[in-house]
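Researcher: Good morning. I'm working through a list of sequences from a screen, and I'd like to move beyond sequence-only analysis. For each chain I'm collecting a predicted structure so we can compare shapes side by side. This is the next one on the list. No need for commentary yet; just the structure.
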Amino acid sequence: MPKTSDMRESKFLKKEDVGRGALGTIASCVQKNVAKEGAEPEMKWCLTFQEIDKPLVLNATNVQLCEQICGSDDTDHWIGKRIVLYTDPNVSFQGKLIGGIRVRAPKPSTAPPPPPPAVEPLTDDDIPFAWLMPLVLPVLSLIGVGVLFA
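Model: Good morning. C-alpha cells for this chain:
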C-alpha cells in the first residue's frame, strides 16, 4: 500500500524522492514560484539538476552547505558541480522534527591512483656533457680543485 506522502504530487523534490542519496550535477540556480495553485506567488531560490527532473527548494542551511561544497558564494560557480541530496531525519520545521533534504559533497572516488611511471636508470648518454668529465677532472686536480670531487 502507498504511503500518504507518496500520494501528494509535487513539482519540487521531497525527501521521499532522494532517499538515502541521489547524485546530481547542478544545472542552474533560479527563482521559482512555490505557492500552491491559485495562491499569491511565493518565489524561492531553487537548484535544478541535469539528472533529476524536479528542482530542490533551497533553505538557509542547504545554501550554506552548497557554498562550502562548491567553494563559492557565487551561484554561477555552482553550475556543473556535483552534490549528493539525501534524507536527513533531523531536519526540523517550526520546532518539530520532520526530516528533510540535505546536501553533501560526493565521496571521493575509491579507485586507486594510477601507479607512478617506471623510472629508468640514467646512463652516461643521458647526462649532458658527461663525456667532458674525464678531460676536466685531471685539469681541475692540477689547479687544486680536485678535492671537490673526491
